[in-house]
Design a protein that fits this description.
Blueprint: E1 6-8, H1 9-16, H2 20-28, E2 34-36, E3 42-45, H3 46-52, H4 59-62, E4 71-73, H5 74-81, H6 85-93, E5 99-103, E6 106-110, H7 111-124, H8 142-146
Antiparallel strand pairs: 1-3, 2-3, 4-6, 5-6
Length: 147
């Protein structure tokens, strides 16, 4: 039996590297579970919070946000970030990497998405391991297992 872990809002916000107000909004809207301790402190379910944070709010994504909307070709992205073409194509087909358009015969994808995916891949990737949920966030347990 695995017990669920609840964290005080400041600690959860620090671990997830997101704002406390955002966590409170998720809690108030019922998107994540929480509770109130006898001392009045508000806590949130750690797994719920991790699952509801959009990839754009994650520290790994935010550090590449200056590249958002910058188009890069698949081959160029493959060389620049050291990720196989087919992996990038699969992430694009799965909606993890957004397609921005075309330039002649070249498909342009969002470089911020590529840089984010490459970072997650470098940290946690193994052949055959699915790294991302359908919303582009890392699968549950990846970050917790590595630290």
């Amino acid at each position: 039996m695995t017990l669920e872990r609840f964290l005080p809002i400041p600690e959860a916000a620090a671990r997830l590297k997101i704002g406390e107000l955002y966590l409170r909004a998720l809690l108030q809207s019922g998107k994540i579970r929480g509770g109130i301790l006898p001392n009045g402190e508000i806590v949130v379910n750690e797994q719920d919070a991790k699952a509801k944070v959009p990839k754009e709010e994650l520290q790994e994504y935010r550090k590449h946000s200056h590249l958002r909307g910058v188009g890069i070709g698949i081959r160029e992205a493959s060389r620049k970030y050291g990720i196989a073409d087919v992996t990038i194509i699969n992430w694009s087909r799965g909606g993890i990497i957004h397609r921005l358009g075309t330039d002649k015969n070249k498909i342009l994808i969002d470089e911020a998405d590529v840089a984010y995916c490459a970072e997650i891949h470098q940290k946690y990737g193994k052949q055959g391991r699915k790294l991302f949920n359908s919303d582009g966030t890392p699968r549950a347990g990846l970050i917790a297992k590595v630290g």
